[in-house]
Amino acid sequence: METQDIRSVIGGFDKARAEIEKRAETGQDFANEGARVKTQIRALHPKRLTLTVAEVIEETATTRPLRLTSYEGGLPPFLAGQYVNLFVTVDGVETARPLAISSAPQERGHYDLTVRKLPGGFVSPWLVEGLQVGAKVSSTGPMGSFYVNPIHHGDDLVFLAGGSGVAPAISMIRDIAARQLPVQFKLIYGSRREDDVIFDQELAALDAAHDVLTVERIISEPDAGYEGRTGFIDAALISELCGPIDGKTVYLCGPPAMNAACTDALREAGVPDKRVYIEANGPPVDPTRRAGWPESVAADHTVTITVKGQGSFEMRAGEPLLNALERAGYNIENACRSGECSLCRIKILSGEVFNPSEAKLRQSDRRFGWVHSCVAYPLTDVEILL
Ligand code: FES
To answer: Which residue from 21, 27, 128, 386 puts its CA 20 to 30 A from 330's CA?
Structure first.
């Protein structure tokens, strides 16, 4: 029996060999192609962008979308709902904050990053009050998996937003309107006060102009005489505004407490977890109120962190380890600062650390002592390896 060359039965082998031979004749080779592909990938997914603040938009008393343009050329494309991690130095501390892009992907000349000043915040007041037009900042390229995926998400979409969590929602809405996507999109948007509502006029105009878009706003602390919807986004309100919701895809982006409450409400309404996409907005504000936090440890309990071979510093148990590491001058790779991306992983050599539900740890991480430092809270003195 004649032996068959195995290569001739591999799908596409003959075609690939013919292409290689043809390119050899014309002087092209695949090493050049590889370099060209790498250049294209770097342009689409750059590790760092240098940006200029082109405009600071007064949106509400506490919220300013920053319009950023590229200092070096074009900006990479993004999907509506994605974020960039903005690197800043505040009071001498090198840190970063992930900020959702609120502009539409069709606006290729800039990214709008919507920042709300948080009372007692470390970075947000500096971003809102300290960044002036002309300032230069750097960021990652667009990141994250929180975007509309028409193949997997279907055409009946609900977005539950709280506060500045409306930023990715308006990018999605602007995108749907620009591309006239064949979806139904309902935004249920909770704010404390009427004058806290971000993008209020534009949302109302988009709602009026597009049958596929509906915007419902909810105010939790209304002024006397306010006639709109009041209260919080809960199971009863979701059911009233959405009807049966178990077949819809839900996006959720708000403060951690709202995300947790809405997740429970959606489970109660029969929405499977796999149809709920959550964009955490930073670490828990108060980890001591989370399930599993030991009653005996106060948020201001002081612990010592020893970085093996490098030194030690003190911090409060109730703050994320990443924040304290940055303050002590350690530079840790990070992006989401919400427990999702795992870029900030560090190894705990000894001591006890609290990991809230935001920390998306793998079983092997838990087994070998890895934590996501952006949402890890040391309960005792801890030794770590960087
Ligand atoms: S920065 Fe993404 S998990 Fe910590």
So the answer is: 128
